[in-house]
Design brief:
By secondary structure, the chain is α+β, with helices and mostly antiparallel strands. It is 44% helix and 23% strand. The strands form three sheets. The chain has a five-stranded antiparallel sheet with strand order 1-2-9-4-7. A four-stranded antiparallel sheet has the order 3-8-5-6. Strands 10-12-11 form a three-stranded antiparallel sheet. It starts with a strand and ends with a helix.
């Protein structure tokens, strides 16, 4: 379901300090909002699939979106769990090629969408804004390279600590004194990090014993940034 954006209720979610949207020029923020619509999707609903034609870029306002790939034998590989105020879908903006992965609503979600046609019109009128979308893309690329390096070079607990830290920081500003809860299961973490569920459970226990996280059913609360960073070294 799609509706127009309600600035009073939705703008706060977009302008979290540290987020991409908050860092771009005011004129670009206004242009995106003018051309935006709100989409709501239910838990378990697919937003788009690998191979779909590009339909614009999205921002998570509420809820969680799971980005996945599927192996030939049907096994799911989880690439990211996205929450507010993360933007996604920008790869297809640059090459106008089909979607590279599937995007699913992990929970009921409210999304901001700016259509491909609107973006192309905006950027033809304001070509200097391409660099801001380029920065959004390269932020993701840097994260991919770091994650690949971690898989090959780090032991499980350090790998897990870094991924949790990366997910938390990716959702906006976070300080030592503010806890951060991420809705994710041990099985999902294992799929993201190429680790067994048993190994993830053991590593989470080590991080909890060290006082850096608390485990909850279906979620993980990060309570000490410095300890989590130390565990990732």
């Amino acid at each position: 379901m799609s509706t127009h954006i309600n600035l009073k209720s939705d703008l706060a979610a977009l302008t979290v300090p540290g987020g991409w949207f908050a860092s771009v020029p005011q004129a670009l923020r206004e242009a995106l909002l003018i051309n935006a619509e709100i989409r709501t999707i239910a838990a378990g609903q697919r937003l788009f699939a690998r191979g779909d034609a590009p339909d614009g870029i999205y921002c998570v306002l509420t809820g969680v979106v799971r980005v996945t790939g599927i192996t030939e034998n049907g096994q799911e590989a989880i690439l990211a769990m996205l929450e507010s105020p993360q933007w996604f879908g920008e790869i297809a903006l640059f090459d106008n090629e089909p979607r590279t992965h599937d995007a699913w609503a992990e929970s009921d979600a409210k999304l901001l969408r700016v259509s491909q046609r609107a973006l192309e019109t905006m950027l033809s009128e304001r070509p200097d804004d391409w660099r801001h979308f380029g920065r959004l893309l390269t932020q993701k690329l840097r994260s991919v390279f770091v994650a690949m390096e971690d898989i090959f070079l780090l032991p499980p607990t350090a790998r897990l600590a870094r991924r949790l830290l990366s997910m938390a920081k990716g959702y906006g500003a976070w300080t030592d004194h503010t806890s951060r809860v991420i809705s994710i299961s041990q099985e999902q973490l294992g799929l993201m990090l190429s680790l067994s569920r048993q190994t993830v459970n053991q590593s989470l226990r080590e991080l909890e014993d060290a006082g850096s996280i608390h485990r909850h059913r279906g979620s993980i609360e990060m309570v000490d940034l410095r300890k989590l960073e130390a565990a990732g070294r």
